[in-house]
Amino acid sequence: MKTVAITGSFDNLRSKHVRFLEEASKWGNVHVGLWPDETIQAREGRPPRFPERERRYLLESLRFVDRVTVVGGNIKPDALPDFGGVTPDVWIVDEEGDTPGKRAHAEARGIPYQVIRNQELRGFPVPSLAPPSLDSARMRVIVTGCFDWFHSGHVRFFEEASTLGDLYVVVGHDANIRLLKGEGHPLLSQDERVYMVHAVRYVHQAMISTGHGWMDAEPEIALLKPHFYVVNEDGDKPEKRDFCARHGIEYVVLRRIPKEGLPKRESTLLRGF
Question: How far is CA 30 from CA 5, 24, 35, 73, 228, in A?
């Protein structure tokens, strides 16, 4: 496989960044050269919204990224930084990042240069649900939620839940989120939210709920027949406990403890309401 070089801050990681990484991964193994905090401060005149360790954790959690290297030193705007001695096979940039200087630099170093256009990043492709083999010895784990603003807390939750078996994530559909949380919710569409969830390598499959209320995932649970239903402390509801007790599903409540060295994150604070 070819080594694909991508560089940037990836501060406040959003769906467009992930779509870009997904398209880049079609060219080979994606190696991200991540700007350290001091580089963002120097180039943008402000500290990053999210610290280097958290940005790296998020990138490394994505199924489209093979390796992340923090690139230091004097990073020139139109030059490819040192990737720890690795010479990439192709340098890929997005449309906003394309400059004549980068093209000239790539040509001088003999590195193929590719631009991914904005029109290629439209839509949120997620594989269709493939019902699991119920005869498999693999444990099946289900989690549910809104996941309205993707952050490191979500990734940590998925990482922990996935240790119990194949992780299926059911993302609440838009109408049900409005029902439970009120008008103005969700901020992001169900298609975008399920795409971001599916992009996490700890997630076996992601899907949109088709039911209503706190047990909006009941139709999906009937199909998947999970062994575990995992929630965090905020998602612990009597309706979920009662449902699991009646259906012989082990109910697991995880504490909201961030990944070591990372700050605690909440979607409500990040999206501002």
Answer: 6, 7, 16, 22, 33
CATH code for 3-121? 3.40.50.620
| DSSP symbols for 145-209 | E---S--HHHHHHHHHHGGGSEEEEEEPPHHHHHHHH-TT--SS-HHHHHHHHHTBTT-SEEEE-
Question: What DSSP state is assigned to residue 134?
Answer: T
Quote the CA–CA distance of 141 and 136 in Å, as a whole number. 13
Scanning the structure block, which residue is given the tokens 């080594």? 3
The pTM for the full model equals: 0.95
Q: For 128-175, how does the pLDDT look when each residue is reduced to its tens digit (9 = 90+)? A: 888 888 778 899 999 999 999 999 999 999 999 999 999 999 999 999
CATH class of the domain comprising 140-271: alpha beta
Round to whole Å and give the CA distance between 114 and 101: 14
Partners of residue 168 on adjacent β-strands? 142, 205
All residues at 6 or more sequence positions from 198 whose CB lies less than 8 Å from its CB, including other chains: 126, 127, 169, 205, 206
